[in-house]
Structures are given as C-alpha cells and as structure tokens.
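Field reference: sequence -> structure
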Amino acid sequence: MRERAARDRDRRAAIAGAARSSLIEELETWPKPGLVSHVDCGAHDDMDANTLRLSIEAITPYFEALAQAGAQGAAMGRLRVIGLEAEAAMMRATGTVNTHRGTIFGMGLLCAAAGRRASGMVHPREQLGRVVARVWGEGILDGPVLLHSHGQRARLRYGAGGARQQAALERTGGGSLTPETSSYEVGALAPTSISSDGR
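Structure field:
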C-alpha cells in the first residue's frame, strides 16, 4: 500500500514537473515577437522574465494538486476550485499581474487528465485532450464566464469559441488546434502536432 502511494506521488510530481519544465522552456525560447522571454519583455510593460519565473514557481504545486484530483476522479467543480487557488497564488507572486491565467486553465486540465490516465481510470493511450473533452467538457462549458477577460472580449467581438470551447469539444475542421488534431503526452504536456494550416 505504501509503495503504491509513493508511486502515485511520484507520478503526480512528474506531471507537475513536466508542466513546470514546459513553461520554463517557453519562457527561455527566443525570438518570439511580442512575448516575454529571457532576452526581453516583448510588448509587455507589466512583466519580465523574473515575473514569469515567480509565477511558474507559485502555480506548479497546483498542477500537482490537479493531477491528484484527476486521479481521484474529481468533477470539474473541484478542478475549478484548485484553478482559482492557483490563480490567487499567481496574483500574490506577481503583484496582481496576470502572467498565466490561461495556462492554469489549459495546462491544469491536461495535468488533471494525465493524473486520471496515470491512475488507470482511462485507457493508457487515450490522448489527454480527449480525456478533458470527454470527462469534463460539459462542466467546462457550463462553468462561469469571466466577463472582463481577454477571451470574453474576443468571443464577443469575433464570435470565437475560445479556450473553453476548444478544451470542451472534440471537433475537427476550421484549422483549430483541438484534441482531434493534437497529440498530448504526459512527458511534454504540449501539443505534438497541429492542424494543416499551421495554427
């Protein structure tokens, strides 16, 4: 029993570690016009590489908590609570700068799906994006909408579905990055393929 508990802890830590590593690698990637890197602040005057590093360290424990919640079969409501706790930690660490709200949502769902898959609750080869859509899709779409977020403004202005719809629905076409056109793996926690038009 202790061996299994230790193995489960190691898996959750590995999932959170992979998420953290991918965020550090993204930060240290350059050039990427307009975005913060270790070289410059891009188009941002409210954050720099150190701000992002502080944020990454603040939110990493919540990726592990999300992996644990996924492994325990948690519903979307529980994942949402952990995500809000992660957002609060990010805001404290950055002095209220939103560095990773979208990452907490997207990467957090992938961590929960990876935890669920690692626990044996889903097929070991099922893509994480599909797990998210199948298990939590309805809860994602039924959840609260941030009225003053960048995503909400884009939805209103362009009629775009946004990250919530992308995460919740298994669909193809339209050149969108979706669980159908992506392959998510625990080791990378990032898409390994994209749609044919490069988006």
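Note: Helices lie at 2-27, 49-71, 76-94, 101-118, 128-142, 150-158, 162-168.
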